[in-house]
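User: Can you help me understand a structure? I only have the sequence.
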Amino acid sequence: MLSEIRDYLSARGRAPLSDIALKLGVPADAARGMIELLMRKGRVCRLDSCPSCSRGCGSCSEAAATEIYEWKA
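Assistant: Let's start by predicting it. Here is the structure, written out as tokens:
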């Protein structure tokens, strides 16, 4: 499954946790655990700010403020 995450994120560049979990067919918590392993290896990072504006001000709606992960090339 780690290779599926790698392939998915490297093709897309970045994706929300919900999309990754759906792609793998696992709960979000399970996908997060696998992503954390890739983060420890330095291959993936979590984006802390809102991807739509990149200001990180917290004024985005809850729907937009999801966990977004990015592949590090």
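Now, to help you interpret it: DSSP finds three helices and three strands in the chain. The mean pLDDT is 84. Let me know which part you'd like to focus on.
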